[in-house]
Model the fold of this input.
Amino acid sequence: MPKTIVLIVAAGKGVRAGGDLPKQYARLGGRMVLSTTIDAFMDHPLITKIATVISPGDMELYQEASNQFGDRLLPPITGGKTRQESVYNGLQALKAHAPDLVLIHDAARPFVDALLIGRVVHGLNTHDAVLPTIPINDTIKQVHGGQVTKTVDRSKLFAAQTPQGFKFPLILGLHEQAANDKTCRFTDDVSIAEIAGIDVHCVEGSFDNQKLTTRNDMKMAELGLGAQTSYETRVGSGFDVHRFEPGDRVILCGVKIPFDKQLQGHSDADVAMHALTDALYGTIAEGDIGSHFPPNQAQWQGAASSTFLRHAVGLVRERGGKLVNVDVTIICERPRIGPHRDAMRTELARLLDTDVSRIAIKATTTEQLGFTGRNEGIAAQAIATISLPDIGEEKDV
Ligand code: MG
Done:
């Protein structure tokens, strides 16, 4: 996976929207705009780190906006006199982290969503520069001295949004060139790439991803907050069986348990984690382990099943989904599961990046009936519940 850093530009002084404070520190729904913006990227599986460019006088405000976030958030970078200078400073500071990709985002767009972030990052698989755009719905007039001079054909007009995505070395080089040329002043980063003749690929932006510029924007955003995202609950189930073969341990939910047999399989044969992974794929109708990691491909020989689980939960989070709970039942006569239950819950919580209270592990025997009863193998079943942004309405448009 490419190393992708988000650079949030929060060095602006604009107080039009924020009352006495720069708008990125104004409160929306009781929370600072910048906190909401950082949070939008925080859990995204395609984002490695996040850095913020701030104005030198705003350190205290920044601390307040950022203290809830962990070490995925890099220390703040001091901005310059213009937006362009601030981005330049940010890119210089990111050199030390050597990212492959950088997403440059306005702090005043707190409603960027996980799917939009994904579209920009995925666009960079095949392009050097990616811009999210939305069509313009208003009729556009050219006006001179208070008189309409022309109606502009809007079918070719789009509004540019952020995050704008780039191959890091490319945009760094372009900003360095632009910094040397004092006549160049750009209001966004794609403009720099355009001037240099770089192809900029457009992906679909989002109407919710509006920039908060005026006090009225803040008021509208505040009104819209309640209705902003509705979530629906999704449930997925998974089931798996692996047979025993001679060996000295089994791996269940990532925990190695000494035993007088082992489970046969192409990967590490973690039957419980496989059931759980399929349950997660099930929540978003994304096939199963076999379709993402075909067993006939040699690269998955002996693979840690955590790779599969992380992939599945990554797809959920790419859609803006949040894990609610998972419940795994392991079915066997032996080994005994109880003594390892807490270690399994801890390991799954770590892999799923969630609290252990959301993870249940249960065990049962089958009263010596059937293949599990005859100690021929282990079966596992799992259920996962997630909460997913409701996209139903958009489809109806
Ligand atoms: Mg399996």
